[in-house]
Structures are given as C-alpha cells and as structure tokens.
Amino acid sequence: MSPAPDLRPLFRPRSIAIFGASARPGRPGCDIIAAASLLGPAPRLYPITPRYDTILGIPCLPDAAALPETVDLAVIASGSARILADAAAAIEAGAKALHVLGDLDTGDCDALGRMAAEHGVALLGPNSVGFVNYAGKSLSTWIAPPEGQRTSGSIALILQSGALFSYANAVDPRLSFSLTVQPGREAGVTLSDALIHALAMPETRVVGIYLETVADPSRFLEGLAEAERGGIPVVVLAPGRSPLAAIAIATHARRLAGSTAGLEAVFRRHGVIATASLDQFWCTLRLMSAGLHLGPGGLCVVTDSGAQRAMTIDVAKREGVPLSNFSPLTEARLRAILAADLEPQNPLDMWGGEEDLPRHVSDCLTAALEDPDSAIGLVLTEFGVSDDDTFPTRMADGAVAAAKRASKPILAASFSTRHFSPARILRMEQAGLRVLDGLETSLTALAHLFAWRDRPSWPQVEPMPAETRQRIASALDALRPADENAALDILALAGLPTVDRHLVVSAEQAERAAAEFGMPVVLKSAEALLHKTEADGVVLDLRDGPAVRAAYDDLAHRLGPRALVAPMVRGGIELALGALVDPVFGPIVMVGAGGTAAEILSDRRFALAPVSEAEALAMIASLRVSPLLDPLRGKPGIDRHAVAKAVSELSVLVAAFPERICEIDVNPLIATPYGSTAVDAVILPANSMDDPR
C-alpha cells in the first residue's frame, strides 16, 4: 500500500484554530465551536476574528500570528474570498491539517490543494461539511449529532454528499458510527484516504460509502483490497448509473459519474456490497455492523400468517436468500408444537391462537434454528404498530427469550417499513434483539450477508507468454480499426477459438471459398464497419455458387470489395464477449447475452481483467440468460467451461495491452455442447483517430 497521509491531526486534533469564527448561532463559524465539546472534553479552541473578544466564553484572537501554540487543525469557516488567504496564514502558523468549509472555483480549489500538498498538510475540503470521530471523541462540523446518538459504534461512513451527511448522524438511533466523513471537493484528503484511515480504526466493523466519483482509482483499489484482507465489508450506494442521473451529479457537484462497467468490475473483484437505495444502504450497514458469523445453512423464518409466509418465499427467491430445509427430525419436533392445520416447513407460519404466545414463539424459533441447515433465524411481523396492540409485543418477548439462549444469531424484522410507533422496536433493540426494516429491505440485506459469507477467493491468472505477446504486438501494429479478419486473427493468437474464414476481393474468389467450405456459407463485408448488420453487410445461408456471386456483387457495389466467406455455424447459444480499458479502473472484460438481442437485453457482467476461468464461470452463472445454457428436455447444455476459457483468454489479452487496445467486441460467440466459436469480432486500437462508428 502506498504511504498514507497522517490524518491524526485532522481526525483527532488536540488544538483547533477557527478562522472566520462567529458569535452568531446558525453561522458555521459559531456552530462548529459550539459542537466541539459534544462528544467529550473539547480540544483547545482558538477562535480567530478581530470582531469579537469572546465567543461562547472562549477568548478570541485577532489573527493567526497571535496563536500561542502550533495547532493540529485549522478550520477555515471564512467566506470564499478569504479562504486562500486564511489557509495560507494557518499553514504559515504551523497548522498540521485544514478543514475548509466553503467552496471555491476550480482554479482556486486546485491552488488550495497544491498549497496543502507542498507543506505536507492534510486538507479536508473545500466544501466539506466535516467529520465526526465518535471513537476518538472529536469532531469538526457545524451539523452536530443529536443528543442520544453520540456514542461510538462500528460503522465508518464516508459520504460524497453534504445533504446525506447532514442527517446521516441522526437518521436512525439503531445506527452507531466509529467515524463519519464528508470529504467535499477532495482537493487534499480523498474518499480513498478516509477509507484507509477508517479501516485502521479498531472500532470499525463495516464501511459505508455514498459514491459519486473516484478521484484516485489506484488508492481506492488499495483501500478495497485492505478491507478484503481485514474481513471488513464495504457497503456502497453509487447513484449516477443512468445517463440522466450522471448529468444531475455532474451539474450539482461538478463531478463526472463513475463508469458503470468499471464499478461493477471493481465491486465483483473485491466483494463490495452494492445497494440500490438508501433503505437498503442503511439496513445492510445495520446488519453488517453486528459482526455476525454465519455457519453453514440458510435462513429460517418464523412468522404469524400465511400471507407473510407466502410473500417471504417470493422475496427470498427474488433476492437470492437461501432458506434452510428442515430435516425430518425438526419437522417432527415442530409438528408437536404447531396447530394441526399448519405445515412444519420453512418459512414457518406458527399462528395457533394467543395462549402463552411468548413461549410458543420461543419454542418454534428455537426448534427451527436448531436444525442443522439453519444458519440464522428471523422472526417477522408488524413490530412497528402501536403498543395498544399487544400481539407483536408478546411475539417480541418470545423472540428475545429465544435469542438469549440461542447459539446461532436471531434477528427480527417488521413486515413493512411503516414505523410510526417505533417504541417497541427500540425496546427490542435494548433487549439485544436487532430489528431490521421491512420484508424486502431486510431480505435484501440478508442476501448481502449470505453473499459476504460465501464470497469466493479467485485464483491468480498467469500472464500472457512472452512469445504470444510479441506475435500479438506485431499484429496490433498492423491493425486497422474495425478490421474483422485481423481482429479474429488476434483473438486466435490469444487462444480463443475463431470461425474458419477466407478473405476475398472478387466474386470468383468468394465462390471458390464457398465451394471449399461446403454450403451453406455466410458472406460478410470486410470493410471498416462496426455494425455490419445495420448496413446490410451480412448475408446468411447462401446455398449455391450463383447465390454467393450475387451476394458478393451487391456487397462490393454498396460497401466495398473486401469480404469474408465462412461456413454457417449451426445451433448453439449466441453470447457476447467484450473488453475495454476503463478510463478510471483500467482493463475490464465482459460476458453477456449476444446476437441482435445484446443491446436490448442489457444482460452482461463485467470484471477487472485478467480473470480466471473460475471467476468467468461465476460471471456466466449470474447472467439472466444462464438457464438457457443448461440441458433441457434431453438436449445437452452448452460447454460452460469453453465459454469461461474464452472469457479468461480475452481478459488476459486486454490486460496485456491496455495502452494498445481501446475496445474488443466479440458478438456473437456461438456456444455449443462441444465448445465455443467467435464468429464476429472488432478490435479498436487505442491510437485510432478515425472511429468508424
């Protein structure tokens, strides 16, 4: 890992100078002083302003020259016009770190970053709402955490949004943090720096990131790799994946949204948990912060209605949550407890009247959880209703009793997120039973927990042999953009199986090539066209010489004389392979649905290159079209290992030449029970000036 900046003066300052200090409540220069002692004894504070003698009882200083000591942190709460001057004065006075609240234009922002870097000063901001270091009992923010939510916890939170930071420290009393940071414009300390610092804190069990852009990709990858080594899950909410959302981020925060493909590839490689909404984000952080260690098996669910049972089955299947399968012994044990008309199966509808309900719930939950195939238990009902309804209270009492004696973890979840009466939920939490929010959100979080438990460790990939690398380099030197024949030759050198073909420049050559292959054949334009189908540049199923000659004459007249003749590849499933060099994260490989449906289905998976065959198999298995590759009604399934080998070899190719290759498109790759064949390919060199698209 590259050397990290020393962030201790920033996140645990012993002394703070506040430039632009104010005595007016509601002004950042005042509120940041008022908040300094909320977590514990305040550091030594030096408000710097010539306008006041004291602020909140603290003597003020007229300027930085009057500081009686070299401070750890200088907070710049001044207006934008004074930020650079005050930052320079703070650095001249020896400040080891800066927190800049206000914003600057791009030029001044860059100048501030250079100034801090030249003097070895840790800079948070500009335009940073600040941080709260719960574990270190220090903070620098004018948006203070409310009373009752100031104790240290295990979630480190890094948010590239001031609005989200403004309520994150108070959004849910069940969430507790080790550190929360809003890095602002990241002219100095980046999100990645904050991530690595948070991972080094012994209190941190999970990191949550609201991500809009990655300023320093290599360091971000270092941080994710460090989290992976330390067994600390990273949960990310990354908006901007649609074009309109990307525009919204760029115009509001002056950022460019990250690459969808790049982020997916990075998340896959490092086991990052990607969430799709704030509810999923908070719920997953809450669950992962518990530090649960799951044994083998799935989830057992105890609920109190057939409707809840049915919906649980549906959502668990959709979200990929493994449900435990009860053994005959467990079923017999439950049969003795349940009403005669209820099935002793998971999820378990335990409704049987309200007599001694706590004991009944506890007995059912205990029996279900003690099954060898149960890793974790969940009790599910509407816990968020008013205390006037005592039924959920008694269910909660039974769940708490079971949890106290269980050797496996037990959770609770309210069936919906309508928590207008949260008192019962908070009492359950105080009794040690963690409560999640809503069936769908809770099961999504549990799916993340199981995926984290079962995350694979991919094997290393051997680099391309030197001789192969030299031959491909020579071929790339001569490559023209969108030259399909040359592209297929390069893929063959890399080890991918490619279709037999002849390059022809006359009708006579086309007819002879077709006769050599045997009918039927396909004729394609070999001119520089990326999308031959749209240009009517592909003619299929030609069955005799005159048909071949006529098709060639038409293509030559409309598109040019170069053409490819190849045998028709019958049967199989059309897949698409691709590779690109992401501008942020580098070489990436893709596999997805192929043929003319590729863009319509948008069914594809990305991974950082190179990938092993094992990782490629997992990518293929996660495609929506994956079931089409399986055996069906006596027909054999396709050779998945052959496809995975092609994906791996393509990934090794793009990883070997990231400076030479811009994109590779293999569509389709025909996958059959006996192997796979690339029948169409395009390679765009990185130095291509003319994009034929």
Give the structure's gist in a few sentences:
This protein is of the alpha/beta class. The protein has four domains: 8-288, 3-Layer(aba) Sandwich (Rossmann fold), CATH 3.40.50.261; 298-453, Succinyl-CoA synthetase domains (Rossmann fold), CATH 3.40.50; 466-567, ATP-grasp fold, A domain (Dna Ligase, domain 1), CATH 3.30.1490.20; 573-685, D-amino Acid Aminotransferase, Chain A, domain 1, CATH 3.30.470. Helices cover 36% and strands 21% of the residues.
List the helices and strands and how they pair.
Layout: H1 8-11, E1 15-19, H2 28-34, E2 44-48, E3 54-55, E4 58-59, E5 73-76, H3 83-92, E6 97-100, H4 106-118, E7 122-124, E8 130-133, E9 138-141, E10 152-159, H5 162-168, E11 177-182, H6 191-199, E12 206-210, H7 217-230, E13 234-237, H8 243-253, H9 260-270, E14 273-275, H10 278-288, E15 298-303, H11 306-319, H12 328-335, E16 348-349, H13 357-369, E17 374-381, H14 390-405, E18 410-414, H15 423-430, E19 435-437, H16 439-453, H17 466-477, H18 484-493, E20 502-504, H19 507-517, E21 521-525, E22 538-542, H20 545-559, E23 563-567, E24 573-582, E25 586-593, H21 598-601, E26 604-608, H22 613-621, H23 640-656, E27 661-672, E28 675-678, E29 681-685
